[in-house]
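1st attempt posting a full record on here, be nice pls
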Amino acid sequence: MESITVKKGQYIYEAGSISENIYKLVSGKIEISHNGNKNIIETGTFGEWIISGVKCYDSAYTLTDCQIQILSPEDLNSLDSKENIYFEMFESLTKRLTFLDECISSQIDQESAINTFKKFHPHHKLRTESKFLDFFSKMKFLYNQENYQQALNEVYAFKSDYIDYPLRDELDIWKAIITFHLDPEKAKHLYNTFDHTKYSKKLSFTYLKNLLENKNDTLLSLYEKYGLHVPPNTILIAEGENPNNEGYLLLDGGMKVGRYSGNKEILLSIIQKGDFFGEAGMFNSNCRMATVYTDVYCDVVKMSGEKLKSVISQFPALGMKMVKCQISRITFLDELFKTVCITNKRERITSIIDTYLDKFITAGITLNEFTSLTNCTQREVLEIFSNRKIKIDSTGHIKT
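the predicted structure (as tokens):
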């Protein structure tokens, strides 16, 4: 790793160029800018774009004389201990994502935001109001404490009359998972009684299968320790709330990000499988900038910054995936923002359909949310939907 001094008033790289290195600021001030938005950093990494082989999203300009460490991809691969640099890159990219959020944020009013959200989504509940999530968190706590019999008792004691069949299926799978640690043969018998075709797409079923076959998987190990199964119509993050130093990783399903301060609904983005979200809460105690919610079944991993650092130490390869994930999110949001800003409405709607329709369907986007994102009327959207044979179901969700 080479150390250099760069004089004040120099570009390290410019937006649209190809960066050849990753940079770590040791001392001085760097201005990171994109589309007129400027952010000053005094620590952390930048230039991570080389990792994903994409053009630089932003420009880096020295405001003072700076001491900088240069790390090439080859240097990165040769490091014996990579977890610290992976965590630093993840944190730096997260702070840039947070800065982008702040650039488009209106003033946050938590009470107003929740009331407005409930007006648009009357059937959604905060995670703290979900009886299933409360039960599932308690059961997972006992499971991770290796109190398997108590965890199993918790599952059997849970009154499942009011929940739908997919959640009952989830409970049955977890009965088998916990039973594995008490009586492996009985767990195998339970596994054989399941409808494998019906359960094959469930993350819990895949985990059970790996347990029985003694297979290891990094993401499934995270799921075992920190995973939560989130029902539809759940608000996982509420705009304006305290983050409690926690963030999430979406392992399965799809989520939506919106802003509701100001008595209106603004859909900002979607969260896809493999994305982190709410991760800014790992690094600062500022209030949540947006509401994250789901209309579909999801599996998420909840982690603090310290827990994440420990996970990277155990699974260094995951650190690289996390960095690439953050880069992908930044480029995804940038492209989505550019598409939403297309002046011609018909071209704007068509371009969003061509680029994002499958992802929107996975996330459970509704017609109202689509019109909010495109800033078009339902009539304008439905006309193009009709021509493209895109349907709206009885609940207002987009289908093909």
